[in-house]
Amino acid sequence: MFRAEIITVSDKCYKKEKVDKSGIKLEEILVKKNYQIEEYIILPNDKNVIRQKLEYAADTLEVDIIFTIGGTGFHEKDITPEATMAVIDRQAMGIAEAIRAYSMTITKKAMLSRAVSGIRKKSLIINLPGSAKAVVECLEFALPYITYVINILRGNISNYKRN
After folding, report:
1. Distances from the Cα of 54 to the Cα of 1, 4, 42, angstroms
2. How sure is the predictor about 161, in pLDDT bands with cuts at 50, 70 and 90?
3. How far apart are CA 124 and CA 94, in angstroms?
4. 30, exposed or middle or buried, with CB in 10 Å at 0-12, 13-18, 19+?
5. Residue 141 and residue 82 in contact, taking contact as beta carbons nearer than 8 Å
């Protein structure tokens, strides 16, 4: 069983002006796939708050994967990628690129995503879009590969072949 952290970044959801449908959907999907949700939290668009929560999830909770939702667009408040880049030890560009490329087959607006992915210690961090529909599409595509990466980070797979 993998341990996950869900962080939704949205001022409106944080202020309870809007329901976080994306976070609810992500939690639903992960639970069905036997992930243990360590924490599901909604944060405001504040780089330092996001950075601190990412560090806490990776360093203290030592979760296998941290999903962020939202804050990946072009609005001046969209700073989730910057907060993620501030905490990761290594980038995992291929994951973000693959998710973006897959999403482009559904909507050309996927090119507007600034989402990133990376590794902090043994935790994988993946930025997802804010839309519940997009979260579902991204996970349907990427979750099998994400599981593989988590096993590599855990040391369960030491030698792997390209498929």
Report:
1. 21, 12, 12
2. low
3. 13
4. buried
5. no
Q: Please state the pTM of the whole predicted model.
A: 0.94
Alpha carbons within 13 A on the beta-carbon side of 161: 1
pLDDT > 80? residue 158: no
Hey, what amino acid is at 57?
A
Per the structure, the complete domain to which residue 85 belongs is given by: 3-154
3-state helix, strand, coil in the chain (%, to 5): 50, 20, 35
- Which helix (H) or strand (E) segment holds residue 42: the answer is strand 36-43
Does 160 reside within a domain?
A: no
Here the tokens at position 19 are: 């329901």
pLDDT digits (tens, 9 = 90+) for 50-85: 999 999 999 999 999 999 999 999 999 999 999 999
Residue 129 counted as domain residue: yes
How many domains would you assign to the chain?
A: 1
Q: What's the CATH number where 109 sits?
A: 3.40.980.10
Give the Å distances, CA to CA, from 45 to 16, 35, 36, 48, 163: 14, 26, 26, 9, 39
